[in-house]
Design a protein that fits this description.
332 residues, Rossmann fold, 2 domains, 7-stranded mixed β-sheet, 5-stranded parallel β-sheet, 10 helices, 33% helix
């Protein structure tokens, strides 16, 4: 990758593995920093190199895995960004493989919080110049919540080739497991068709949620004798994917696979998915799939590394280039 003077890349310890993959793809060394714990549970982080007048990127995936809760990861990141700005960094961009609280982007009941906006206010309060996030739940809500610069990366380009290889010559339908994800599934269908070099059909599943109970049985699209690719942004409890796969099986689908950028996997999700008719689940490495049984993970889950994808975005941002044609980096 060619770029102007190298950007500074920090990664907080909780996301070191992902950050190292970004650094390798950029061919840069991670900038040194210190994270110190205090006896009372407080902590501090500071750069150990000069950041004045530099273009700085900080990688932190804001999930609840790996020994630190989501709130602790968020606070550590905010404090570190504030420290970088206080130390004279010209520009600080938060590179977020997984953005927390992105699912609560509107009021659905009286007095509901809108946590997406509150998180945005926190980033703005510490002086964050830009936020780069991968496959947030609602891109429009994400972009509207922030007043600083935002870049939303859609990882469909990174999934298209391995999914196409798995499908082979099968007749294919791309399915959204709910009506809200139809556009996401349609965009994935477009890149998958280019990879397959043939058309794929599309469909969606009815989904209603009330009091934590998911219902709805209608399925739009002819899935009979087809390989169905169920596309979502994340997997939490596994209920949405399981019910969609079972509905496809009842209607004569030949095979069912799932694609989701973020494998959050709440407790019990692995058991539910292991009993589902899903043959393969493709996820990104934005959240470590540590909640899954190792045998299930080895046999039915394929983890796609997204570090190079994030690195390409950082390279382009640092070079003042648009991300609109980012897909060209993947040959689509």
């Amino acid at each position: 990758m060619s770029m102007p003077p190298t950007p500074m890349l920090f990664v907080l310890e909780a996301s070191r593995e992902f950050g190292q993959s970004v650094a390798r793809a950029l061919d840069v060394s991670l900038s040194e920093h210190e994270e110190r714990e205090f006896e009372d549970g407080e902590h501090k982080a500071r750069p150990l190199v000069e950041v004045r007048d530099r273009d700085v990127y900080v990688v932190q995936s804001l999930h609840g895995r790996g020994g630190q809760g989501v709130n602790e990861k968020l606070v550590r990141l905010l404090f570190f960004i504030g420290t970088l700005k206080q130390s004279g960094a010209a520009r600080v961009t938060a590179a977020l493989p997984y953005l927390c609280y992105a699912r609560k982007d509107r009021r659905t009941k009286p007095h509901d919080p809108v946590t997406t906006r509150y998180v945005a206010m926190l980033f703005e309060a510490v002086g964050t110049d830009g936020v780069l996030a991968v496959d947030v739940h609602n891109p429009s809500a994400f972009e509207n919540a922030f007043r600083c610069s935002t870049e939303h990366l859609e990882a469909r380009h990174a999934f298209a080739a391995p999914v196409a290889d798995f499908i082979g010559g099968d007749d294919t339908l791309v399915l959204s497991p709910d009506s809200g994800g139809v556009k996401r599934a349609e965009r994935f269908r477009e890149v998958l068709e280019r990879q397959l070099k043939r058309p794929a059909s599309n469909g969606f599943m009815e989904k209603k949620r009330s009091g934590g109970v998911v219902s709805g049985e209608q399925l739009v699209g002819d899935v009979a004798n087809k390989t169905v690719v169920i596309v979502d942004d994340l997997i939490a409890g596994g209920t949405t994917l399981t019910r969609a796969a079972e509905a496809c099986k009842k209607r004569g689908a030949r095979r069912m696979i799932a694609v989701a950028t973020h494998g959050v996997f709440a407790p019990g999700a692995g058991d539910k998915l292991s009993e589902s008719p899903l043959e393969r689940i493709f996820i990104g490495d934005t959240v470590p799939p540590e909640a899954l049984d190792s045998q299930f993970l080895a046999q039915r889950v394929e983890v796609i590394g997204l570090g190079p994808f994030v690195a390409e975005a950082i390279c382009r941002l640092h070079g003042g280039e648009s991300l609109a044609d980012l897909s060209q980096a993947y040959g689509y």
